[in-house]
Each structure stands twice: as C-alpha cells, then as structure tokens.
Amino acid sequence: MLTSLHTIRIWFLIFSVMVASTASADLPNGSQSKRPNILFIIVDDQSPQDLRVYNPASELQTPQLDRLAAEGMVLDGAYHMGSWSGAVCTPSRHMVMSGRSVWHLPNRRGKRAQSNGVRPENVPESLEEFTMAAVFNRAGYDTMRTCKQGNSYDAANEQFTVRHDKTKRGGTAETGSAWHAEQVLNYLNEREANADQDPFLIYFGFSHPHDTRDGTPELLAKYGATNHDDPKSFPPASDDAPALPVNYLPEHPFHHGHPGLRDEENVSGVWKRRDEITIRNELGREFACSENIDHQIKRVLDRLDAMGELDNTYIFYTADHGMAIGRHGLQGKQNLYEHTWRVPLIAKGPGIPAGQRAQGNVYLMDVLATLCDFADITPPETNEGVSFRDVLEGKASTVREVLYGVYCGGTKPGMRSVRKGDWKLIKYDVLESTVRETQLFNLRENPHEFLIEHHSPRVKALTGIEPTADQVDLADDPRYADRLAELESLLHDEMKRLDDPYRLWDQDAE
C-alpha cells in the first residue's frame, strides 16, 4: 500500500511538471503565464487640460506621460463623480478604493453615520475589507502604497501590506515628489533581492501638484515661476511663465456657493487674486511640480524595465480630480466645469492597443472593477463600478451614456451636473437659494465652456482667444429648450438613482 501511494505521488509530480512545461511551451519565456502586475499612479489636483495629450497647446512638458499615451490608451471622458466635502480628494479617493458611488461612501474615518447627507444604510459595514488592497491581498498579490497623508480612506489605506504615506510638497528631493518615487524603488529593490515572484499591486501616489506648489529651482526657472508666499506683494512677472488658460476669467460671474472656501481664498501664492501675473506664476509652479512628477514616474518605469517586469505590468495614470487655477475665475477643485470634474486617465499594458483614444465615460469608481478584470479577480459584492477593460482594449467606446456630477461641500443643495453625448447641464442652488443658476453647454462646439464673460474685450485681450458667437451658455436660448428639458429630467433621474439626498429648487421633492 505504501509503495502504491509512493508511486502515485511520483507519477503525480511528473504529470504536474509535464503539464506546467506544456502550458508554458508556447509562451515566450513563459511570461504570459504570470499574473500581471499593476502600477496605479495617482496625482493630487491635476486638470486634463494641463497635459499635452489632452491639450496640445499646453506648455507643460511631460515626456514620460506622452510616451505612456503613445504606447497605450487615452480616455477623453474620465470623471471623479463629485464630492460632499470641500476636501474633494476625500470622496474621490474613497471611490477609487471601494468602487462605490459618491452617496454610498463612509467618511474618512470609516464612519457610516455622517453629517454630509450620506445615509448609513447605504454604506456596507466593514467596507475596508472589500477595498482595493484587501481584495488583491486575498488574491495572492503583494500590495504596496505610497501617497500623501490625510484626506483619504484611512481604513482602506491600512490594508496595504507595505505602506509609506507622507505629505511631500516641498522643492527638494527629500521634501517633494522624489520621496514617493524612492519608496517604490526601495520596494522593487527588495523584491529583486528576495527573488519575490508574486504579482504586485503598487499604489504610487504623489502629494503634488496640490498646493503648496513648491517646485524645484531648475523647473521653476524653466516655467518662469517663483515660490511666492507674500500676500502683500505680487510675484515677479516673467515672459517664461505659461500663458493664461483659454477660459481664464478675472472672476466668476456669480458666487460659487462656499463662503470662506480655502481653495478660493487662502492658497499660498494666490489667495483671492485672479490677476494675470498671479495666475501665470501659479501655473508655472504647477507645471514645475507636474514635470517633476513625470521625472519620478520615469525612474520607476526604467527600474521595472531593468527588472524585466515592465511588459507584464498594467500602468494606470490619473488624478483624484481636476483643478481650475484661473479657469472661469476660479482657483480650486470645488466646481463642475470640465477642467475640474474631469480627470486625466492613461493606461498601458498587455492587450491595450498603442496610441489610441476613446471617450470612455468612466468614473474613478470604475477603477477597482477594471483592475480586478485585468488580474482575473472577481470584484467584491460591495463594488458598484463597471470594468472599462473593453474600452481599453478597443472593443467598446464607452461604458455608460449618462454622467452625473455633484459638489455640495459648501451651502446646500450645491451644484449638480449631468452629461449625455455632447450636451452638459450644470445647476447651482447655493447661498440659501440666493444663487440659482442653470448652464447648458454643447461640448463639441464649446469644449472650454465659454460664458458670455469670455467675450468681453478685456478678457479677449488677456487670453488672445476669440470665442465664436455660439460659444456661450445656452440655457436661456429658446432654440435649445427641448435639450434643456431633456437634461433636467436626466439629472433628476440620476439624483434619485444614486441616492442623492438633496433636491434643487425646480425639482420634485421625491
């Protein structure tokens, strides 16, 4: 009997080796038999319009991101959905981690009972156990994270096996973006030294280009900027500073609805100023920080390449939300214009065609389902996102028709937006209903969402941009009354579907 069992074990071992050899025989170096690695890169506060892959006229130079786009897929319609907090990054990063929609999230501390309108029954208990790192840990992945400290989902962040979180917004290697790259490089070096063959998920987050945008001296000089910190004086004017954004305004035509909002009043170097010199200097600082991030990404990708891991790694690049910096007379991230509601999203990896673009119509909450799809992991039952793998592989152009956006971190009910095709609606119900505004844009004809204020001679002289007659808010144009009514109805439907607890002044209470 013992001899028979011994023989069976030997034959089973031989059979297993033969099967493994056969499985990898048709694969170059057996590389495709390995589960893919994932490098998820997220920056803090970056408009798609800052990057040349979205705005060819941008003066920001990011050769590594340009290469990533040339070798992968760019999504033109990626959005963060919105926020119930002035710290827009908080719900945004919760959505990335959990795959849940904006009104189905816990607060930063993981509490289900909240004061922001989220109903406790819409937040699963122990949700952190079903967030990104926890899901990949159970699937046999090694998980590592570096990112800023704070305004994030603490309990989900703690699920990463290796974690190095600090806020680094300085202008040196130790105090700036290079620090985050060093954490990833150290981790990769340790893997190589230990001959670790497990697949990895690396969450590679940066603290920049969020303010304070203290750039390195050489990159500040390149973009004609200074780390200005004196509210009593203006930064020096420089011809090397980036041009004003095409949709710059010296002020927004009505109040944004969040009195005392830090991002609109207290950002060091800007404060309440929206003059040309201040905004161009701040853009220069932002560009200096963003190019530095590009340098750090290259260091990590070069290391992966040297390790032989790059070809088996899916790389995602995005931001937690966009940013205004002078666009529409705004400074922060608490608005629903395209420069702020949208996020950049570039992906590269096995099976993703090179040099392609797609609309996508994705949310950041779709990231978890997509990463799971590429790793052949079943998403957790708590996930509400949709995998956009088919879009990235060129098999579909979008994953949904209608997009919903919200900002109500200030006075309630706040701002709401809905987009379908080329048409977009934004509504404002703020300051105790003293500001009630409706905007309607055709984004194909008016991609920068020009308002009538952009047609003033003073603004045109500053930007050098001459909007066409139809590049305005169309909400009051009787030619588009039916379109307005359609989007108003769509917005109401989305608010109900997504458990938005508020209603605007002209909506049914149900």
UniProtKB/TrEMBL annotation:
InterPro entries: Alkaline_phosphatase_core_sf (IPR017850), GAG-degrading_sulfatase (IPR051849), Sulfatase_N (IPR000917). Keywords: Hydrolase, Signal. Its EC number is 3.1.6.6. Gene3D superfamilies: Alkaline Phosphatase, subunit A. It holds the Pfam family Sulfatase. GO terms for molecular function: arylsulfatase activity; choline-sulfatase activity; glucuronate-2-sulfatase activity. Residues 1-25 form the signal peptide. Residues 36-377 form the Sulfatase N-terminal domain. This is Choline-sulfatase.
